[in-house]
Structures are given as structure tokens and as C-alpha cells.
């Protein structure tokens, strides 16, 4: 049956790409299990109409668990469907060679990268922050739109963070990296089935820290609050000095929250605190967060 996290080979076959159409180039980056390279994709007929793509492949293509995980990630992206604020999937190569996931190319890389660049620029000239504020406000609205789309598709991302928001040409923000994403059961949450997964502890809601099975749209909203904090902190890492799920959980339960960044208004910090309501029932959904952001367009910097 079509249970959560299953791999639907029929669905994958419809998206098969002949790997001869790919020409791989420079390395864009590496993660724990995979790497991403820049490539060009030649359309089946018109040879002169190449498009830039990003190709995700495994570091160890012989690892059956890693292959399963990448195939599942592909199926999740297919379930997600097209949306302007979700990174597009072009297709997958799985025959006669290594698995290669062919993704939309994000010209400007990750939001985290962009924030680091902005931090360096702002040291030389503080005015860039105010000049670029609207760009980041807009990106956060776009991420909310992406989250709203995921909710309509009953998908929980589980790894919303600046490193996983990619910025395409024209500055459009797209939710990427569905490696931890899952489709939701009717009850609204599901069981962790990959014991070795590296979990993004500092972005996780308390209910997910307590019970690694419990991820919902509301835990994605918690992570979105941490993402807002990352933007206001120009890409700094949350909770320096606190490590381990138990210690973070205890701190949150004792009402400790990430401190207010200097580069945001009190109102924007209040919005972060709403995303970090301990009780998920009282947290706003992505639509409400988007409206609150929209009503306060000068919250950063
Ligand atoms: O921050 P970055 O430059 O943007 O470094 C990471 C790295 O690969 C590891 O994930 C970059 N990356 C991932 N997917 C894409 C993509 N579709 N287009 C462009 N860069 C990408 C990411």
C-alpha cells in the first residue's frame, strides 16, 4: 500500500531521465550522505537548448540504505508537486549507473550562504542591511507560501532551516532538501524510521525533541521561527554552547528561548516567540505567520 515513506517505482519511472542527457560540472557542496554538482541537461530533441540543473548523488552509491533514502526523497518531491517556493524536481537517473537526482538549479545557493555574505558586507557598510531588508522580508513570505503548499499536500518537511532554503535567479526562495520530509498519516504525525538520521536538534520543536516520531505542520512552524532568528542574526548558529536533545528540551521547558537579535524589532521577536509556543496547539499555522509578517514589513535589520 501507499504508506508513509514508501517508494513508488511506477511514479519514479515516469520521471526517469536518460543520464546521457546530463553533463556534470563543478561541485556545489557536500552533505553527510551526498554531494550536489552543477550540470547541464540537454532536452531530448533540441540539442541547443540546454538548461542548468543541480545533480544530487550519493557519496557511496553501493549503500542500499542511502539509495533507499534518496529514492524516498525523490518520491516525497513528486508528492509535493510544483510550487514556486519549493525546489523543482526535473527527474531521476536510476538505470545503468549511480542514482542521480536532477533538481532545479539555484543560482544564489543557500540562504545561509547569502546571510554570511550579507554579514561580511554589513561590517564594511551598515546601510546594506536597510537597503536589502525588503529582499529578506520577501524571502520569508515566500518560505511561508512554500510551507502552506506543503501543508495542503499533507507533507511535513522536518528540516526547515536557512541551509535548506535555496535562492534562485531573481531572488526567489525555495524550500529544498526533502531528505527528512515525510507524508503525514491521518493522525497527523508519524514514526521515525531511520535511526541513523542526523537530526536538526536546534531547529526542532520540543515535542519532536521529546518524541522523535512527533513532527507536524506546527513543528515546521517552530523551525520557521528559528529560521527568522537566523536571518536576524545574519546566519549565526542558534544556542551556541547548548548541545544534546535533552539539554535543549530542558531549557525550552524551563521557558528559555533564543534571545532577541539586535537586528530585529520587538514586534518581529514577538512573532518568533509565537512560533516557539511550547504547546503546539497554541502555535500559529504558516498562513497566520505569513499574514503577521506581511502586516509588519520592516521587522528585520
Ligand atoms: O550554500 P550552498 O552554496 O548551496 O552549498 C550547499 C551545497 O550545495 C550542499 O547542499 C548547494 N546546493 C544544493 N542544492 C542546490 C541547487 N539545487 N542549486 C544550487 N546549489 C545547490 C547548497
Please specify the SSE layout and strand pairing.
Layout: H1 9-14, E1 22-30, E2 34-41, E3 51-58, H2 64-80, E4 89-93, E5 100-104, H3 111-124, H4 127-152, E6 155-156, E7 165-167, E8 173-175, E9 182-183, H5 206-210, H6 217-232, H7 245-253, H8 266-275, H9 286-294
Antiparallel strand pairs: 1-2, 2-3, 3-5, 4-5, 6-9, 7-8
Helix pairs in contact: 4-6, 4-9, 6-8
2',3'- cyclic AMP binds next to strand 1, strand 5 and helix 3.
Please provide a written account of the structure.
It is an enzyme of class 2 (transferase). It is a single-pass type I membrane protein. This is receptor protein-tyrosine kinase. Strands 1-2-3-5-4 form a five-stranded antiparallel beta sheet, covered by helices on one side. A two-stranded antiparallel ribbon has the order 6-9. Strands 7-8 form a two-stranded antiparallel ribbon. The longest helix is centred in the middle third of the chain and has 26 residues, at 127-152. The protein has 301 residues and is α+β, with helices and mostly antiparallel strands. The N and C termini lie far apart (49 Å). It is 37% helix and 15% strand. A hairpin with a 3-residue loop joins β1 (22-30) and β2 (34-41). α4 runs antiparallel to α6, α4 packs antiparallel against α9 and α6 runs antiparallel to α8 (266-275). The protein has nine helices and nine strands. 2',3'- cyclic AMP binds at residues 28-29, 31, 36, 54, 87, 103-106, 109-110, 112-113, 166, 176.
Write a compact overview of the structure shown.
It catalyses: L-tyrosyl-[protein] + ATP = O-phospho-L-tyrosyl-[protein] + ADP + H(+). The protein is α+β, with helices and mostly antiparallel strands and 301 residues long.
Amino acid at each position: 500500500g501507499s504508506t508513509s515513506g514508501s517508494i513508488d517505482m511506477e511514479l519514479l519511472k515516469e520521471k526517469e531521465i536518460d543520464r546521457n542527457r546530463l553533463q556534470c560540472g563543478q561541485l556545489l557542496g557536500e552533505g553527510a550522505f551526498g554531494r550536489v554538482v552543477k550540470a547541464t541537461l540537454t532536452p531530448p530533441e533540441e540539442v541547443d537548448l540546454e538548461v542548468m540543473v543541480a545533480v544530487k548523488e550519493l557519496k557511496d552509491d553501493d549503500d542500499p540504505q542511502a539509495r533507499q533514502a534518496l529514492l524516498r526523497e525523490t518520491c516525497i518531491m513528486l508528492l509535493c508537486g510544483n510550487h514556486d517556493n519549493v525546489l523543482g524536481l526535473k527527474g531521476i537517473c536510476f538505470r545503468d549507473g549511480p542514482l542521480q537526482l536532477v533538481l532545479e538549479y539555484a543560482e544564489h545557493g543557500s540562504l545561509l550562504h547569502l546571510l554570511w555574505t550579507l554579514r561580511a558586507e554589513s561590517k564594511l557598510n551598515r546601510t546594506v542591511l536597510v537597503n536589502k531588508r525588503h529582499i529578506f522580508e520577501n524571502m520569508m513570505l515566500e518560505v511561508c507560501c512554500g510551507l502552506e503548499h506543503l501543508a495542503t499536500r499533507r507533507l511535513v518537511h522536518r528540516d526547515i532551516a536557512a541551509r535548506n532554503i535555496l535562492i534562485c535567479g531573481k531572488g526567489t526562495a525555495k524550500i529544498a532538501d526533502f531528505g527528512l520530509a515525510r507524508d503525514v498519516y491521518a493522525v497527523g504525525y508519524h514514526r521515525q524510521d531511520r535511526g541513523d538520521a542526523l537530526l536538526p536538534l536546534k531547529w526542532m520543536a520540543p515535542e519532536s525533541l521529546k518524541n522523535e516520531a512527533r513532527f507536524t505542520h506546527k513543528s515546521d512552524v517552530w523551525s520557521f521561527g528559528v529560521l527568522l532568528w537566523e536571518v536576524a542574526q545574519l546566519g549565526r548558529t542558534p544556542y551556541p554552547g547548548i548541545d544534546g536533545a535533552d539539554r535543549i528540551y530542558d531549557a525550552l521547558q524551563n521557558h528559555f528561548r533564543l534571545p532577541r537579535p539586535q537586528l530585529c524589532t520587538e514586534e518581529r521577536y514577538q512573532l518568533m516567540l509565537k512560533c516557539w509556543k511550547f504547546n503546539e496547539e497554541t502555535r500559529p499555522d504558516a498562513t497566520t505567520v505569513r499574514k503577521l509578517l506581511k502586516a509588519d514589513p520592516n521587522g528585520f535589520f
